[in-house]
Amino acid sequence: MDHDIIYLDNGDTTRIDDDVLDLMLKYYRDSYGNPVSLHNLGIEADENLLWARNTIAGSVNAAPEEIIFTSGATESNNMAINGVAEYLRNKGNHIIISSIEHSSVKAVAHRLKSEGYKVDEVRVDSEGFLDIEDLKSKFKVTTVLVSVIYANFEIGTVQNIEEIGKICREKGVLFHTDAAQAFGKLKIDVKKENIDLMTFNAHKNHGPKGIGALYIRKGVKLKKLMEGGSHEFNLRPGTENLPAIMGFAKSAEIAYRDLEANSKSIIKLRDRLIEGLTKIDHITLNGPKGENLGMRLPHNVDITFHYIEGEAILMHLSLRGVCVSSGSACSSKTLEPSHVLTAIGLKHEQAHGSIRFTLSKYNTENEIDETIKNVTEVVSILRSMSSFIPEEHSELLNQNAKTFYKNKNNGE
Amino acid sequence: MALKYTEKTIDHFTKPRNLGTISDANAEATEGSPACGDMVNYTLKINPETLIIEDIKFRSYGCASNIATASIATEMVLGKHIDEVKKMGTTEAANELGGLPPVKMHCSVLAINGIKAAIREFEKKIGRIQDEKRVLTEKALLNILKNVMHPKHGVNLVDNDNIQRIRIDGQDIFIIITLEPDEEIYASNIHDEVMEHLESMKCTHEIMVKIESKTGNFI
Question: How many separate domains does chain A show?
Fold first, then answer.
């Protein structure tokens, strides 16, 4: 790349923190022992693993023996849903999920369904908040698990997890939450919020990729996914990925050490971006807004730009060095629009025009202003050529973007 | 999903040729739909005597490759006789761009078929062709299905051997499409695309499209 990148796709993955990487290198180069070995290097590794487990557990108010390290959020979600469903097969075969889960929850539920389990999806409202009454109505005597995403990856809606957890606890049903987007951005207390199982990972918070965790409340039993050694309390076999685990713990430590300061500055940038982009005509902010903005992830902005298509916006921005993502069908491998956007009631053509901007502590005000400028231009260019402009907005076809093309075609 | 476009595709995407609407056009067509996420509009000026395309402009609602294929298609047909254009293959716009990712091949189909649709309207208007009463045969259905691209291979469903069975039974059309087990993720998209193309025939038949995995499971 011959230009500076403005990276606004931190909901996908983040740049690793230098302090995290430095620490990890030490565990590749010097302290590379295996925690199960009996010699000095092994003992050292085991002590480090203990520190990491304590740190991760402490960041969400769990006990160290309640934390299982996995290869990431996808594995944690698979392990939680599959593991509980199989372990409680004789107790019941009914699972409840929300309609806006990550594919690693949705797909597991879908497969279980094909194997004879019953799966119900709970509705969300137009801002993505779970319909609590709908949830309550879904419980059956055979219900064994409820899984609701803590904060949504696409539209940033933060659920009232404590209330959902309380309802499940009262019904005597296990409650799992996928906190991949919330961890490191929000204060999480698994005890207070009545959480039985929780998925989270490192790479969304300036930690390494390929490492995550599953919190399993003491007393909750599940079937393991893989067979092998007795690692991770005999629940997840395989030599612990210690450098990544150390990086995970360090990134969690930094995230929670700096939580308040970072939240404050990221929210300021987010609101600056929202303010700038909502000056563009014919747009919709997807997810919590207005008085609900406080229930939106600090780093998430998701906007539908009407009458144009998201992949084209994304590609134009990419050519200008701005990295974002889109919920449009054309930017997905399966050519289906985001199920989250359709679940909140967007029509397909509204989902196709959506762009997600996800910020991090490394973004600056200047980058946000540059982004607003670029998005405004790109939207105007694409609208000036759109075949989907309603007659009453034909002025969109006559914007100065036409001049832009003229100049470009003249070899500018 | 990371998409790698050719330089030529990026060039046509960022600097589209023949953009806009011809106000005194004598041929026009809009193909695709906003719900599908791609829609292209063409306006043309065809010389009624020579049948040469003397001017063409497009407008697009769609992704980068939708814009690029429409743009290059206008360049490809400008100055050509409409009979020559009618013979063009649906992947020719993609080829001219130096290729497209398989998942984007349907854009080329839309770009070429859009122009062909405009020409067809024009020919009807000047009485060069009759408002055809389409006799629904298996062959006609196969020809329509040749416009649906497999998103993984970028080849149409017929040539990719996905069409397992076609049956026309009075007012009912049955089509069974088979996919490899690892292609099940495309089932929903392929189903919608097939329905969209069949519905464009505007026939009164009941259409049933079943998608099967090679393992024999209906999806």
Answer: 2
